[in-house]
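[worker-b] picked up task from shared queue
[worker-b] task type: protein-ligand structure
[worker-b] ligand name resolved to 2-acetamido-2-deoxy-beta-D-glucopyranose; SMILES cross-checked against name lookup, match
[worker-b] sequence length check passed
[worker-b] input payload:
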Amino acid sequence: MLWTHLRLEAMRTPRSPPLTWVVVVACCVLAGPPQSGASPKKTSCRVQDGRADCSHLSLRAIPPNLPRNISSLDMSHNRLVGIPPAPLNLYPGLLRLDVSYNSVTKLDGHLCQTLPLLQTLSVAHNEVHLLKREDLSHCTGLVLLNMASNRLKLQGEPFSALKNLKSLDVSMNKLASAQLSSQPQLPSLVNLNLAFNDFTALKKDDFSFLDNSSFLQLLNLSAVSLKTLEPGCLRPISGLRTLIMDGSNMGILVLFKLCTELSRTAIDALSLRKMKLVTLTNTTFTGLQRANLTFLDLSHNGMGKIEEGSFQWLSRLQTLILADNNLKHLTKGTFQGLKALKELQLTKALVKSHTSSTPIIDDFSFEPLSALESLSLRQTSVREITGHTFTGMTSLKELDMSWSSYTSLRIITKQTLVSLAGSPLVKLNLTGTAITQINPGSFACMRNLTTLLLDFNFIQQTLTGKEFEGLGEVQELHMTNNHWKVRLSSTSFVNVPNLRVLTLGKSLNNTALNVDVDPSPFKPLCNLTFLDLSNNNIANIRGSVLEGLVNLKVLKLQHNNLARLWKSANPGGPVLFLKGAPNLVTLQMDSNGLDEIPEGALRGLSSLWELSLATNLLNNLRYSVFDDLKSLRVLRLQKNLITSVNPEVFKTPMSNLSLLVMDKNPFDCTCESILWFVTWLNNTNTTFVPDLGDQYICNTPLAYYNHSIMDFETLSCKDMTPFQALYILTSTTVMAVIVTALLVRFQGWRIQFYWNILISRTLGFSDANIDEGRHFEYDAYIIHAEEDSRWVERMMVPLENENCRFYLEDRDAVPGVALLESIIDNMRRSRKILFVVTERLLKDPWCRRFKAHQALHQVIEASRDSVVLVFLQDVHDYKLSRSLYLRRGMLRRCCIVEWHGGHKERVAAFHQKLLIALGMTNRLME
Ligand SMILES: *[C@@H]1O[C@H](CO)[C@@H](O)[C@H](O)[C@H]1NC(C)=O
Ligand SMILES: *[C@@H]1O[C@H](CO)[C@@H](O)[C@H](O)[C@H]1NC(C)=O
Ligand SMILES: *[C@@H]1O[C@H](CO)[C@@H](O)[C@H](O)[C@H]1NC(C)=O
Ligand SMILES: *[C@@H]1O[C@H](CO)[C@@H](O)[C@H](O)[C@H]1NC(C)=O
Ligand SMILES: *[C@@H]1O[C@H](CO)[C@@H](O)[C@H](O)[C@H]1NC(C)=O
Ligand SMILES: *[C@@H]1O[C@H](CO)[C@@H](O)[C@H](O)[C@H]1NC(C)=O
Ligand SMILES: *[C@@H]1O[C@H](CO)[C@@H](O)[C@H](O)[C@H]1NC(C)=O
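[worker-b] inference finished, payload out:
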């Protein structure tokens, strides 16, 4: 049946008849595959796979310079006036020759002699007039001959030699008779095209030349306005299976006669389009009662009335096409007798115009159609649907009422479609039927339904779930384009748990998925693979909205307002709603105002194949946001604000791409931003990048502004390499200098100090031998400010005994000895030098100038613990170093003793510490 349909479509002659199907097929074969791209106008023949295309070249002769072994030559649309055999001598292997659309006036009898293998010859749209027997007498191998649209005048028996011809087209030749010959011939003929000729009668013997053509199956008589049919005129072609009468203006009586003649044929498919058949009577098809017609096309007839019983004769009919008519009333009798009918097309067959009333379908009108599986009422208009409109269609699987206007469908209730209860309906198409409301249980009777289409309506309600009661088998629910009035609840889809496809694009109120809808309406849909939520201006969804959708493959979220959810500044952090759908294959989030992709937003999407983020505001993408997209093949990022394409972001997603669309971004054409990308583009041969030449434009820097990124000089980056090394070297040096300077500034004393110690040590001294090799008269040389002598007397002097002696300047200096000498000598004689540090001491010029120098000398030359500092006050290290050239850090910790006041226990502790500092604990113990 389908085959018949296709065959009919192919055979049909178009209304304005320039080409018959033979030409179409021949041209397709001859022309070869369409040339890719917008190639400039052809200036010479193209040769490919043994086919030479020399069409549209204004040629006046067959070109002599083609490969000799070509099998097909297309010379159509040139200026040939004949087909002289001589030039064709060069191409003896030709199987196909097309010289249509030239000015050929005559066929040459030697043509087929020159081309002994020729099978297909098209001479359509030329000016061939006389056609004689000799012209084709050698063409016995010819299988297809197209002579459409010439001025044929047949002389003698021109076709008598064509023993193998299967297809003959002589349409549009103003032939005055269908009789192409008086002798039986063309024994292999299958298709005969006589359309658009001038004859109006079929005489008894017209087809007698086909007496032996037992294979003839298809006869095209389009636009032949038959007036007379002699009985038995079709007898010679009783094997006929397909007859095309489109556009023939024959009237109902001649049609009746035609059907009678067809009754003795094997007719299977009959096309009666555009024949201005205004009515059908209950006898029109009587003749077909004995035939086995399975396909009847009555479309485009402006038919207003079909009498009851008109089709009663067609009990084997399987397909009836009544599209584009003007029927006013279908009754119980209209389809009476069509008990084998499987497909009925009533598309635009029942229409309302301003001059006519709304058509009516009576109750039980479809009852006779018990075998009907598919009914199309697309673009029809009917007054109402009652409880019995569709009753009796016990095999109906598909009902298409799309773009129809039925007032009963405005508000669908339990009763509206109850007449379909007896049908095992699988697909119901209610697209564009102005539905505003669906009440509970509206589809409850459709237990077998798998596909429900509700796109382009005005549904305006909160889906509670009751609307879809009984639809446990439904796998596809389409509800796009419902004017943003649909709201959802947690139970919206509880009754359709088998759903695979759910489309809600351009339908949801923008608050439909707000956080208060919890749990998510999609939660029951664990088998969902396709979800369309696009164009809804949704700004707010829960992170768990897709929870449990482990089978979801396609998610469409474009044209919403999800930017805020992915901002890192979003209160509570970015909402990573994709985590519920880890097996996504296609994700579309174009036009969402996105300026950020948070870390982890695309985590785990290792099956993702297509990612579309076009028309957003993306600029600096975080490193590794795309790192899990290991299967990506298609990436769309056009029209964003992307300036740089770095490997840190794009290396992984681009490693396997077959399509990249990233045009119209403001690229920054500098080495850092674009070098990697340009190199990648230049090296990739597996990724298709459309418009690379003219839509990938540099925005910065000025030097490249408005140039293609492919103009970027990658070499300029390579030249930079030595400079880069130099740069790194100099910057390191500068850094080192700065660090050293800072170190010296703040820790220089320490460096210098330890350096000095190191020097003196290497010259041979050490703490130990100093102690051993010298004899000390005093245990400590005490230096203090004059004002602190009372404290010294009270706290230090009492420690003296026969084992411990201090040198105190005021007390022990021998009068008469020079002061400087005395200091140096006595310091040498003391094991330690003890400073009693107060602010007052630091101001004492003696101390600062001389004693301190001497002490420092001692420290460096002798040992680090030859100096002891006793702090009576907290003195800043800085001041200490300014006046005494000493710092706390230069001395061992034990050599610094602090005085904390005169409490009894504290004094004891102080003394203990002091003796440790002086290295005298042992002696004290004794
Ligand atoms: C055709 O219809 C007429 C009335 O319109 C009726 O008298 C006649 O019996 C019908 N013929 C057939 C074959 O149904
Ligand atoms: C119609 O089909 C039946 C059974 O398929 C067959 O017996 C009969 O000969 C066919 N009639 C014609 C006219 O081909
Ligand atoms: C439903 O009808 C619409 C409009 O006529 C059509 O485009 C669509 O293909 C139909 N859908 C199905 C699944 O038949
Ligand atoms: C329709 O569903 C019923 C059970 O609900 C089943 O028995 C029947 O076979 C189904 N019909 C078709 C055509 O699938
Ligand atoms: C999901 O699909 C599987 C297999 O196709 C099926 O067995 C299962 O019942 C479906 N789950 C639901 C909730 O319908
Ligand atoms: C969405 O629903 C809310 C509350 O139900 C309503 O205020 C708002 O107008 C609706 N929006 C649209 C576009 O209908
Ligand atoms: C592109 O590749 C070709 C060869 O693979 C090389 O000659 C050319 O310099 C490259 N151009 C750029 C801009 O990298």
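[worker-b] attaching auto-annotations
[worker-b] Residues 714-762 form the longest helix (49 residues).
[worker-b] releasing lock
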